[in-house]
């Protein structure tokens, strides 16, 4: 794997807007793409994992949710790396996961979100 890959839900307008922000403002060599268009088998990841959270897949590391966002920011330039480091700090990380889960459950209500953005109910 030459470059890391950051996967997001391409069926979700909110997620797509966030990915467009990354593409425009966060310089990285990572491939940022909808998981629906990725070769998940080659990346060693499942659709279920992708439906639950954004994913970071690199040769030396795999992460999800805010940890994946931290890895993406850490793989960027000097402007964004401190934000990635901050997101990895234990107290921030402890708050980031519940916040991420709340956003994931409510992303269909976020700006740009639609009913197609709703995370499937696993209960």
From TrEMBL:
<protein>
    <recommendedName>
        <fullName>Thiol-disulfide oxidoreductase</fullName>
    </recommendedName>
</protein>
<dbReference type="InterPro" id="IPR007263">
    <property type="entry name" value="DCC1-like"/>
</dbReference>
<dbReference type="Pfam" id="PF04134">
    <property type="entry name" value="DCC1-like"/>
</dbReference>
